[in-house]
């Protein structure tokens, strides 16, 4: 109780709200008792509890089926074929399988917690935490009580189906890693060697640079100062090249033109450009994202994934971010008709630096 001479108490007693002002008076230390416990249908009816448990493990088995379907869809619609139809169907059906697997686990876990687990309210008084034997024994008892309340140890059907669903939900992700690089074969002994695969692209001496995706050849006179153009090798068209997307992913190039006096190429690469026009791989050397943003004033290329920046005026060297090496440069020149052509293929592997580690 407040003291009679407490000035704060006098101030509270004398204060009156303005007319028309609604005031909600609450006691911040009031501790209302818990309302009467309302039993769920599954608490009152054993048949309802059985139906709820059946629903839970059915959802977990549905998740298991989704994981199996995702793996099967990956095999039924191989992306290695290069067909856009197979690729679209692969992405659609693998994605649906994974979505079903994760969604069913989530819904099953929520329904389990709401309909099957213990629904009683408890008040746990606070106490000092001590590392005594009694504390450890209480912790063990708490786990035992939680197991009893959740029914995890007692309801074998729910437990086993949940474990199977969780384990199976990881399998589609592991399966997808299979497509990162094909396995070696007698016909292609280097198919599983990423260093070899990324060291060879469709660029070759005399290959014209063409617009992506139209395939229109590019003349040096067409490139304006400050512009950045997305290019691919001539002949890299969906209906003309097997494994079109794989080849394009390695060969994509960004063409940039800047004043010749602002270019400072590394030693040995002085003749890799033409009249201020230089070409660099669009595949970031960090984790392989497409580098497609060019800042004209600073001459920087930006990777939008992890913000690595490359200075075009300095041979696309790294000036910021996690990338470990400059973007590979494509040596270019012009042919007799004035079209830009490659002097050769890239002289180093494109893509992330870790592919070069043996």
UniProtKB/TrEMBL annotation:
Membrane topology per record: Multi-pass membrane protein
Cellular compartment(s): Cell membrane
Region Disordered: start-end pairs: 1-21, 28-47
Pfam families: QcrA_N, Rieske
Domain Rieske: 272-341
Keywords from the UniProt entry: 2Fe-2S, Cell membrane, Disulfide bond, Electron transport, Iron, Iron-sulfur, Membrane, Metal-binding, Oxidoreductase, Respiratory chain, Transmembrane, Transmembrane helix, Transport
Ranges that cross the membrane: 59-77, 92-112, 162-181
Superkingdom per UniProt: Bacteria
Molecular functions per Gene Ontology: 2 iron, 2 sulfur cluster binding; metal ion binding; monooxygenase activity; oxidoreductase activity, acting on paired donors, with incorporation or reduction of molecular oxygen
InterPro entries registered for this protein in UniProt: QcrA_N, Rieske_2Fe-2S, Rieske_2Fe-2S_sf, Rieske_Fe-S_prot, Rieske_Fe-S_prot_C
GO CC, one annotated term: plasma membrane
Basic and acidic residues biased stretches: 1-13, 29-47
Required cofactor(s): [2Fe-2S] cluster
Protein function: Iron-sulfur subunit of the cytochrome bc1 complex, an essential component of the respiratory electron transport chain required for ATP synthesis. The bc1 complex catalyzes the oxidation of menaquinol and the reduction of cytochrome c in the respiratory chain. The bc1 complex operates through a Q-cycle mechanism that couples electron transfer to generation of the proton gradient that drives ATP synthesis.
Family: Belongs to the Rieske iron-sulfur protein family.
Full protein name: Cytochrome bc1 complex Rieske iron-sulfur subunit
Organism of this sequence: Microbacterium mangrovi
């Amino acid at each position: 109780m407040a003291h009679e001479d407490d000035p704060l108490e006098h101030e509270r007693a004398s204060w009156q709200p303005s007319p028309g002002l609604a005031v909600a008076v609450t006691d911040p230390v009031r501790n209302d008792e818990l309302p009467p416990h309302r039993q769920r249908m599954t608490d009152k009816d054993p048949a309802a509890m059985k139906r709820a448990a059946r629903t839970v493990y059915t959802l977990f088995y549905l998740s298991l089926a989704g994981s199996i379907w995702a793996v099967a869809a990956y095999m039924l619609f191989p992306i290695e074929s290069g067909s856009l139809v197979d690729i679209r169907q692969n992405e659609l059906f693998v994605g649906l399988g994974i979505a079903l697997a994760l969604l069913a686990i989530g819904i099953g876990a929520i329904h389990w917690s709401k309909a099957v687990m213990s629904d009683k309210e408890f008040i746990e008084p606070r106490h000092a935490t001590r590392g005594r034997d009694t504390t450890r024994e209480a912790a063990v008892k708490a786990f035992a009580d939680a197991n009893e309340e959740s029914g995890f140890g007692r309801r074998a059907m729910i437990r086993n189906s949940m474990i199977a669903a969780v384990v199976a939900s990881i399998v589609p992700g592991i399966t997808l890693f299979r497509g990162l690089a094909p396995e070696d074969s007698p016909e292609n002994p280097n198919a599983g060697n990423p260093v070899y695969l990324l060291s060879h692209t469709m660029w070759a001496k005399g290959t014209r640079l063409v617009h992506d995706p139209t395939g229109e050849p590019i003349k040096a006179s067409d490139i304006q100062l400050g512009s950045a153009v997305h290019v691919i090798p001539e002949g890299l068209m969906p209906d003309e090249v097997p494994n079109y997307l794989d080849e394009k992913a390695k060969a994509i190039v960004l063409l940039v033109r800047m004043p010749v006096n602002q270019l400072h190429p590394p030693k040995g690469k002085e003749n890799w450009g033409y009249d201020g026009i230089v070409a660099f791989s669009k595949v970031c050397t960090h984790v392989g994202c497409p580098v497609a943003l060019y800042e004209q004033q600073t001459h920087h290329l930006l990777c939008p994934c992890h913000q690595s920046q490359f200075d075009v005026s300095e041979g696309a060297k790294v000036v910021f971010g996690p990338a470990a090496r400059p973007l590979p440069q494509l040596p270019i020149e012009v042919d007799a008709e004035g079209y830009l052509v490659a002097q050769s293929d890239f002289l180093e592997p494109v893509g992330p630096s870790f592919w070069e580690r043996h």
